[in-house]
Amino acid sequence: MIQANVVEIGPEAINEKEPMLILFNNTATTTLRNYSIIQEFLNKEPFKLESGKTIRFDEQEYTIEHVGTTANQNLETVGHVTLVFDEHQPENTIVNGVYLNPYQLPEIHLGTQIYYQ
């Protein structure tokens, strides 16, 4: 299990009309930070996100339905992943997307713990 801590939330990062969250580590540029949630990993272990596994935000648990082709690599290298809280549609796949169920944004605040399981 990988654990991360939310250390920054950009002013445009959470939009109820767009069911997605963009995460980066602290290497994100100033412009990206406006639209992103910055996470700081608390441990470094090899991991691989896969369908059927879970991501938890504090006590809010989501099941992974689909993992885009570049999601694992980008998450490991620059802490970047786009979390999508909507049904996966193959014709519109975000290559760095991780599609999660239930289809609702979690409550996120500074200090939220993210668990990649």
From TrEMBL:
Pfam families: PTSIIA_gutA. One of its GO terms (biological process) is phosphoenolpyruvate-dependent sugar phosphotransferase system. GO terms for cellular component: cytoplasm. InterPro entries: PTS_IIA_glucitol/sorbitol-sp (IPR004716), PTS_IIA_glucitol/sorbitol_sf (IPR036665). GO terms for molecular function: kinase activity; protein-N(PI)-phosphohistidine-sugar phosphotransferase activity. This is PTS system glucitol/sorbitol-specific EIIA component. SUPFAM superfamilies: PTSIIA/GutA-like (SSF141530).
